[in-house]
Amino acid sequence: xxxxxxxxxxxxxxxxxxxxxxxxxxxxxxxxxxxxxxxxxxxxxxxxxxxxxxxxxxxxxxxxxxxxxxxxxxxxxxxxxxxxxxxxxxxxxxxxxxxxxxxxxxxxxxxxxxxxxxxxxxxxxxxxxxxxxxxxxxxxxxxxxxxxxxxxxxxxxxxxxxxxxxxxxxxxxxxxxxxxxxxxxxxxxxxxxxxxxxxxxxxxxxxxxxxxxxxxxxxxxxxxxxxxxxxxxxxxxxxxxxxxxxxxxxxxxxxxxxxxxxxxxxxxxxxxxxxxxxxxxxxxxxxxxxxxxxxxxxxxxxxxxxxxxxxxxxxxxxxxxxxxxxxxxxxxxxxxxxxxxxxxxxxxxxxxxxxxxxxxxxxxxxxxxxxxxxxxxxxxxxxxxxxxxxxxxxxxxxxxxxxxx
Length: 405
Description:
Blueprint: H1 2-22, H2 24-58, H3 61-77, H4 82-93, H5 97-107, H6 113-122, H7 128-139, H8 143-164, H9 187-201, H10 205-239, H11 242-256, H12 264-272, H13 274-282, H14 288-301, H15 303-314, H16 321-348, H17 351-354, H18 370-404
Transmembrane segments: 43-69, 119-139, 236-257, 292-313, 325-346, 375-396
Domain Nucleoside transporter/FeoB GTPase Gate: 41-130
Keywords: Membrane, Transmembrane, Transmembrane helix
């Protein structure tokens, strides 16, 4: 089995190299598209949350929040109260923030391995700006669709958390918590833990801020590499015909569920990289409901690009990747089902939201939703934020190197 794996990996990497030689222009274009996505959207969107989360951990705020949320998170999800902080930050900042923070808590021994795996499995999600801005507005030109996709996405994640509470119960070394006294809400105890946590960290504010920026940028550089890699990989698989062959098999499955077979290629692309799949899905000839269901699935699944990012982050700890992968599959099915279930109440019967839909070719400005303006303004300023941050990190690294000399 090990020998077979070696041959498979060697063959796959060789074919990838040959594809790059055969299609250099297309590979460059795909690489630039991935780079633009990271530079304009991913880096500036995730950076503030990554830095803020590091500061909140260092200042003891996470310990405070964990004590407050313990009575809520422990009975429902079987994770410590600090998981509520990870959940909130993962929702606001998007992939792969949940996995990064879960790994961070594990490194600090604030969660057990099983708790960390549960936490990573349901705290990863796409942020609202990406769902409303990039998907609903940018690709579908339909801001009203954003509410449907976001609702199915976040409710589906709650279902994943409830399902994953049963993960690893036999492996837990601690006693059954059902016999333990139920944790009580105590602001005094929470304040004490916050103070103790800050004293235990011990770093001055300047050092903590510098460490937070550098740690966040290192993680985001890793994320950027995976985004570019899978953008190129997705393009190469399309050019060599793999996507078309795989889409044939997917078309058979879609026909069983009475979904348009024209979405099969978009589905395969979305399994590798979300934005590519959403773009193909938005221009297909299928019904809008079918497009929404398929898109909702691979947004929740995260694409193999995000899966690889999370695997790399979790490899720094003893957290296993398999529970996360199972959680993403469950999230995909939950979100797809909820999109179908909520279609009528949240989209079809919501006349107010329907007026927000606009045509990609329309020149009528009054029909534009405010989210369109927000998304365009974000794209205008985000490259400068990325450039400024990278320059700051270079200065910090240079200063640290000179001090060592």
